[in-house]
Amino acid sequence: MWRGRVLGTGATLALVATAAVAPATAEPGADWEAGEPLDLTQYVDPHIGTAVSSTSGYAGNVSPGAKVPFGMVTFGPDMSRSNYNGSGGYILPASATSGRINFFSLTHINGPGCPGQGVVGMLPRTDATSVTNAAGAPQQAAEFQTANESAAPGAYSVTLDSGVEVELGATTRTGVATFTYPDADSAYFSLDTRLNANSNARNDAGKISPENVSLEVSEDGTVLTGKTVAPAFCTPWGTPYNSNVYFYAELDRTLEAQDDTDDTEGAESTVNTVVDGSTVLQYDVPADDPTLTLRVGISSVSIANAEENLAAEAPTATLDQVRAQADDLWNERLNTVQVDRAADPDALTEEQRDELVKFYTSLYRALGSPTVYSDVNGEFRSMEAPELLSGEPDRGGYVQERETVNVSDYDYTKANGETGGYDTHYSSLSFWDTYRTQAQLLALLAPDVASDVAQSTIVDGLQCGALPHWVDASDDSTPMSGDNALPVIAATYAFGARDFDLAAAARFVSQSSFDETSACNGNASFAGMADYLETGYYPEGDWTSANIERYNSDYAAAEFLAAVRDVVADDVTITDDQVDVLYDRAGWWTTILDPETDTLRSRVAPTEPGVPGEFGTGTFHESTEPNYFWSFAHAWDGLIEGIGGNEAAIDRLDALFSMDDELTATPTLAELNGGQDADTFYMGNEPSYQAPWAYNWAGKPAGTQYVISQLRTTAFGTDRDGMPGNDDLGVQSAWYVFASLGLFPVVPSEAGLAISSPMFPAATVWLDGKPVRITTDSDPAAAPFIETMTVDGNAYGRSWMKAETLANASEISFGLSSTPTTWAADVHPSDAAATTTGLELSATTIKAGASATATVTVDSADLTVPQGTIELRVDGTVVAEAPIGAETGTIEIPLTVPAETPASTVSVTAAFVPSDPTFLEPSASEPVALEVTPAPGPTPEPTDEPTDEPTDTPTDAPTDTPTGDQDGLDELPDTGITVTAWIVAALLLAAGGLVLRRRQSA
Questions:
Q1: What whole-number distance in Å separates Cα of residue 119 and Cα of residue 99?
Q2: Closest CA to 229 of 198, 265, 260
Q3: Which residues, 6+ apart, have CB-to-CB distance to 817 below 8 Å?
Q4: Is 132 helix (H, G, I), strand (E, B) or coil?
């Protein structure tokens, strides 16, 4: 498990000038130097995803409103939604040339499948018409032409058909608006505190009771304050709790005095008055400058905090200044991935520009969620419910009173004894969605945010009793099955963002996994735990897919607890049995795999203890069995074996992606995004996200490379309908970012990434202020297949990479091909790769007193430089150890045989002991015989009297050699030491520069 910490940018991006590696053919940006800041906001189009996909039937549900990275405020338009399309506030057909805006609001959730937020609703008018009717429902929506609308990171503008120009900007907790009217007499502004996202649906419009909101207008109209109601997320299937959003607004004009009566109606004028939390105000604007500027701060706590937020972030800034600041903040975040082509916009082809727009719009969305919830003073509304509510939420807008807490209340002690804490509390936590892609991307590119998100999740748990499920504002919601905070916590830690309370996290993960009573504000952590653990599955009648969510959560819990066990040992006891049980439970997918049909199915409840019930049909939330089949990648080896092996798996994947065996097919958009009832691929929803990389595990990595290239080109576009489905808090966008870089976290809680070919010839990813270059030798658009791969110049031949390898790399290079290759086809992506160890001696016969060189070479099946230790063995006994793999898989070990060594033949072997036996297998060389011959003896001194007497001592032996039987000598008479041991001891003394030890080999 990777233990290195990866940090992203803080206040300033750390830039290191590194020479860019140009691809083989010159292209835009070839002369750019990696690290030089790029203007990347020009490639972001916030309107992508605002229309319904023609194939899936779902929109991205994103807002084009103004916001900064992770901002509490998204200041933008709200439109009437169709069912759940438009839950992000904005929805128009892809071909629309006009639209209708109900109101503008300050808070929007990015890409949800259910509505929420949409508060502080307002609309500029040219007459005294209120934004709502008497009941508080939107009325007389403002019409506009799409040609008169624009959006960019931190900015939204539209000229309404009424002639009012609306320009919006945002800071983290404030919004700034400028309304330019056609003339001085038409400067009307309407605001209704009863409006929220539910107001955009007919069945919930106008239901908020005036007694649950408030609005006050200063005598001159320059200050507006009040309280609004953010609806319970995913009404009526989510949480039963509504929440408040308070606001404090300042305007730069005073009110226009009104006559006592309304001449049109002949009744008392209602302009510049407040009725039921609603008002229509007319402002006195100069004829030569008919503008009205609004600055507004919001808070979950109080009007006073909203005012403090405004004073801290935008007390006097102009709209242009606020927008410029937002642009800078976005560029800082977007520059965590720098694509070389982006440096030369004028030289781009239309296709190249479209690729950049899709990529940076995706990165923009991925870095827009979750959202800040705490105020500048650290305060926020607690999740602790003094009384548990159940059933449907109060449509009238009742909000439960809660305690106000502060981020400073939640310090903790780190393992090293230091005090830990966090600066910002986050909300909009869509765990069922984010655990698959976005949690990992944030940990890599924005670990400052990822750590605070993890800490926010833990603090929520401390308040509500357990890790939450889906957080909007200060409430836990359960629109989806599973306990998905577990894989988010595990993924955050695995990918290097670790600055949060690990001990508390371990306690909560363990509690969620083993304690049947664990619940957050009444929402059970592990619904139906007792029955599930007894039978091994959820019986038919529940979603079959709920089992899969449990497998992923159990595996994540095992991975996290195993990883932090030693770190938190002083505070939390984590046993081997607990971890083993979780790994075992993660393998219970075997209970729902029908061997007769090779499909995942439901089972009825058991009719006798210990015997699973009969198979049922199977039901899968928001998708189908063919897409869910690949959604728990930790079990792919077993799944593939269970359906008949690699060939069967490839056939199944080909059918899913409408692919031919030769990888030449071009699937249509309908085939790649068939919708939630399709048996072909459904790119528009999370359960399918891992599937393209399953080809890697089935022994056909070229399939992954080709399918990913087809998805990037076909399933995603640059028009309003260019997103295949709900973005769900940036997760679909995060998928696209990973897929474009050629990396993907197929097992959410494991610190590793499956490999495919990247989309760009050259890009730099910034991790911990350190650049990692990803380059290709040709344009991937024409050559999507990997022929070779190197990491820092060393060959790499497996389709999976440790996150640690990525973090430590300087350059990852791909040699690409236009036709399929067999690169990495014979190496399992994440299991230990086979190695071979070779040994050569510079001489196989050596005289005592002479030297020889042992050359040891280790080759790995995945082509990587083997990291580990070489053990040199003589007759099975380890005589020396030396590290191998710093730069090469070959080392030389000098051996000098002492002159007094007797004649003998010994067996020399070299063994490779890998540093990580989960990544490389050990191996040993074939034995090499080494014959030691006696050293030449000294020349005898001449004597005066030669003798004919025979001698027992050989003439070439040392005069002090013991006498005895020299044929097969196995002991030295005086010491009892074996000849082998004599040689071993000599080698131990002579092998200079090695780490020496003597032990008997196992």
A1: 21
A2: 198
A3: 783, 785, 786, 787
A4: strand
